[in-house]
Predict the structure.
Amino acid sequence: MNKKSLAVFFGGMSSEHDISCLSAATVVDGLDRSKYDIVLVGITRTGCWLPVRDVSSIRDGSWRQSLASAVLLPDAGERSLLVTEENGTTRKIRVDVAFPVLHGRFGEDGTIQGLFELAKIPYVGCGVAASAVCMDKLYAKALVNELGIAQARHVAFTLKELRNGEAYAQAKVEAAFGYPVFVKPTDGGSSYGVSRVDRREDLFAALLEAASEGTRVMVEEAIVGRELECAVLSTPEGTKASGVGEIRAAAEFYDFEAKYENPASETDTQPVLPEGKEEEIRRDALKIFNAVGGYGMARVDFFLEKDTERVVFNEVNTIPGFTSISMYPMLWRAAGMPLGELLDRLVDSAFYR
Ligand SMILES: Nc1ncnc2c1ncn2[C@@H]1O[C@H](COP(=O)(O)OP(=O)(O)O)[C@@H](O)[C@H]1O
Ligand SMILES: [Mg+2]
């Protein structure tokens, strides 16, 4: 069998740039080199596309120093990266399949997927529309609402609306529900711009902080309960849901620090759940994946509400983390699928979309 030329895209112009680099290092190490010729394309925070030599330069960050460029041609007749070396010479590298390991805006939101569509290059993961829908929590909530699956009540603000000031924002939120609330950008990730607000005096500052991370902001009633996640994967035999994993944040909530920097935060792939809840969450994850038009992979996140035992939808991540502490690969490993096999399946799924 011929080796496939597989291009991994990482970094990107989002606040989750660093997390993407961690995810990419895990993915690249996990790919079977007897099957793939791996080409690495790093996208800087300012949006420059650079050819990257090896995974160690991803780990130490030195990839950003390259003076060459590697851009994906939108021309469907080419299906290639155009590499321009430091000395100005150019060459093309054929791309059989693209693996975007990008989190957040300009990577997980349908934009780069649109470029892959134009170039007619098969790619891993959700298509343009599903990516865009899941990147914006308000659109995802609207679709999930149709399914009758519970979710936190919310109110949304446009950035322009926030100019009406503090009293306006407080009144709008308080007309809907009481404190504590969660304030977040509608299209953020990795908990950037997310805060818990316990009293009205702190609401507006939280809204402004969220506004710096997103194109709209939302306020949700706080759900008291456990955080549970389910991984979804497209296979030739149909869409599969993994078991359910639990996040136990070593903080008031799973903020950025608790996610990536606090070793006391725990992930558990075999949590003990009340009777029937694992099945309910797996079923809901598949329903939600289908409702948003998902393809390839996604991680669907829920709460299990403490007092009511309601399963409450939180969000869908169409390019879930692949860092060493990330639930998506962990859940598949727990289901008997090691990383290399998971990556093979993801790459294969790009070809039978
Ligand atoms: N409505 C809510 N009730 C309780 N906790 C919440 C709520 N919304 C968010 N959180 C907490 O904040 C974290 C990040 O919020 P999330 O909506 O998942 O944003 P992100 O896309 O940045 O991961 C969650 O993992 C959870 O710990
Ligand atoms: Mg989340």
The pocket of adenosine-5'-diphosphate (ligand 1) is lined by residues 152, 182, 184, 188-191, 194, 220, 222-223, 227, 249, 253-254, 301, 314-315 (CB under 6 Å). The chain is about 30% helix and 30% strand. The CA atoms of residues 65 and 307 lie 53 Å apart.
